[in-house]
Amino acid sequence: xxxxxxxxxxxxxxxxxxxxxxxxxxxxxxxxxxxxxxxxxxxxxxxxxxxxxxxxxxxxxxxxxxxxxxxxxxxxxxxxxxxxxxxxxxxxxxxxxxxxxxxxxxxxxxxxxxxxxxxxxxxxxxxxxxxxxxxxxxxxxxxxxxxxxxxxxxxxxxxxxxxxxxxxxxxxxxxxxxxxxxxxxxxxxxxxxxxxxxxxxxxxxxxxxxxxxxxxxxxxxxxxxxxxxxxxxxxxxxxxxxxxxxxxxxxxxxxxxxxxxxxxxxxxxxxxxxxxxxxxxxxxxxxxxxxxxxxxxxxxxxxxxxxxxxxxxxxxxxxxxxxxxxxxxxxxxxxxxxxxxxxxxxxxxxxxxxxxxxxxxxxxxxxxxxxxxxxxxxxxxxxxxxxxxxxxxxxxxxxxxxxxxxxxxxxxxxxxxxxxxxxxxxxxxxxxxx
Length: 434
Known about the structure:
Elements: H1 18-29, H2 35-50, H3 54-73, H4 76-81, E1 85-90, E2 93-98, H5 99-125, H6 131-156, H7 173-180, H8 188-212, H9 219-237, H10 243-260, H11 266-274, H12 285-309, H13 318-321, H14 325-351, H15 363-372, H16 377-387, H17 391-419
Antiparallel strand pairs: 1-2
């Protein structure tokens, strides 16, 4: 999920801060003003929104606000707000969901649409376009999913919490890249590796959702979803480039998926692969949709999701809660399982000659990337909500995810600093540094 920048790290002039920058300019144009302050304010906002750190900072801030609201300011009322039912039920239409479900099943579909478009782009022209390019991130993703799952299973085998094995398998790309950008003397190739690995990792998480967290199926609605998807592919083949056509088909696909028993967010991924990719230039529909969703997803959708799902009321027993099998499995899976799995599988791939380390990337850098892969946050919380219906298990899992993501962030940044000693800072290509 390249929520902050493309894999190649470049942005054209047309691609820079489209909606945010113009929105600010129009706001200040509506009132009497001095041109100098306007330029300062818009430049500050522009620099902030273009920063790779921005989305990570927003998510961190939203999480802190959510925890404060739930524990110090509003309390249980804040949590209860997201459980209120909103929507309507009518003849043939059933759309009365809790606020939390609207966010998790509705808004997050937009997030997964962007994920799908990014995966599509990488498959066609990016880091996943050849076996040679994709092999090391592929091995990293496999190791980063298998080891955390096995660690969680070792702690929870035969227990009701065994279904949480998918929780430590996920990586939050926005947070991981945000923390990576805080490091000094980071090779640009490491960012490419971490991004590609996280894309494959998220694809694995999507498959986990589809195969392991899908409940009873409603065949009629499933056929309806397949019908809408087929129509979208047909429009693609007929070279239909009107975005509203795919929006309408996407809404139908989403509703049928919601009612079918397959998690509704998968509609976003399916729609992404049905949309015309073309040659991937700035005129293609796929590129334009990515361009339109890039900042809204990073600065609206994900923060709202974090606000709704991290409002955990921390009890006096929080420390002992982190010592139960489920919490230990999640924390050790993310903090230890991720880097161990990534290093083991990458080491095997390099030793057998199947892959090689990217330019300027050392094994120390790879270890740092593996630790940052343990930042599960939004994706792990998302799978938690699918894995458990019990509120106690859900809250314990969220606490474990927050603790593990915090530990992984600090450790990853420390190892990154250690690995970067006496190395040039090449996080961005030289020609992109102004």
